[in-house]
Specification:
338 residues, Beta-Lactamase, 4 strands, rod-shaped
Length: 338
């Protein structure tokens, strides 16, 4: 068996092996993964903060519905929900001051770090929303508040102002409604009292009218009727007119003619009464000692004012039909006395 010698050339240079952990190809993906993880963490944190902000605004809207008739409960509920909407709620406290009254969170103790926003109504400050940090990490002591939190506190202040103005308007409306109800009730009671007074006045008027009617029937009419039988000629016309006018006193003619035709003069009303009783133009002229032409002028004025001009209606018939029924008992009594 032949033996072969094999010479192995050993290089004096050390053989270098590359570790996988130091390979550029493997280091770059790891860095990218770390960066992506950091970005995801930041995005997650930002989303959590936005969720807290949205929850804060939603809570304010809910408090508005729950405590719309109680401004004190509304403001107290709002101030208590503020700390949990900031990034470090465990070190946070809040205060809302509105129209001189303060509403604070439990264990309120102002810290050295403060942010605030004015509550404005019609451009004038009426209150302030404040958030305090009692302590913060050293890394955040220069600026412990996020820029988003500045926007949030301004939004809270605007929302508080809007809700409080609506509450005040609603309260003013309720007070006005109550005042109107009180006034309406007062007017209703006054109306009842006035109706009672008017009813009593009407009863008294009817009593007076009945008394006058009774006196005319029992005292005056017998005398006038007897006198009418004893006189003749022109004197009898006067007595007849007197009797008819006494009957008119107890009838609704004079009051109705005054009410329906206030533009008639006293002379026209007197002449209309004579025309209604059947007196002619000549008889009226003789009784009033005026000319027949004057009587005709009065008749024409009466037709004009009563709306009979250019109509064929008879003035005497119109005057007789335009009034209520005569008191029959007076006429019957007068006839029986005759």
């Amino acid at each position: 068996m032949r033996m072969c010698k094999v010479w192995v050339h050993m290089s004096k240079k050390p053989i270098q092996t590359q570790s996988a952990s130091h390979s550029p190809e493997t280091h770059q993906p790891q860095a990218q993964a770390d960066t992506a993880a950091g970005n995801i963490s930041q995005i997650k944190h930002a989303l959590q903060e936005r969720i807290k902000e949205l929850d804060c605004m939603y809570s304010i809207s809910r408090f508005r519905e729950l405590y719309f008739h109680s401004p004190r409960q509304f403001l107290q509920s709002v101030v208590e929900c503020l700390p949990r909407s900031w990034q470090s709620p465990e070190h946070c406290c809040a205060r809302i001051t509105y129209q001189g009254k303060s509403y604070v969170t439990g264990g309120f103790q102002p810290g050295p770090w403060r942010m605030s926003a004015d509550v404005l109504e019609q451009g004038k400050p009426v209150g302030v929303v404040e958030v305090f940090y009692r302590q913060v990490p050293l890394s955040q002591q220069d600026s412990p508040f996020l820029k988003e939190e500045y926007a949030l506190i301004n939004a809270v202040a605007e929302r508080v102002a809007d809700v409080m103005m609506h509450m005040q308007a609603e309260e003013d409306l309720r007070e006005a409604h109550k005042a109107l109800q009180v006034e309406h009730q007062s007017l209703h009671e006054m109306n009842i009292a006035l109706r009672a007074v008017l009813s009593r006045l009407e009863e008294e008027k009817q009593e007076i009218r009945s008394s006058i009617l009774s006196n005319i029937r029992k005292i005056l009419m017998p005398i006038v009727l007897q006198l009418e039988l004893e006189v003749t000629g022109r004197q009898r016309s006067y007595v007849t007119l007197l009797r008819q006018n006494l009957q008119e006193i107890a009838s609704p003619f004079l009051s109705q003619i005054y009410r329906d035709h206030v533009e008639l003069s006293p002379v026209e009303i007197a002449i209309s009464s004579m025309i209604r009783n059947g007196l002619s133009t000549k008889e009226i002229a003789q009784l009033r000692c005026i000319s027949p032409a004057t009587v005709r002028r009065h008749r024409e004025n009466l037709r004009k004012k009563l709306g009979l001009r250019n109509r064929k209606a008879n003035l005497s018939t119109f005057l007789q039909s335009s009034t209520a029924q005569e008191p029959r008992d007076l006429q019957e009594k007068s006839g029986s006395s005759g």
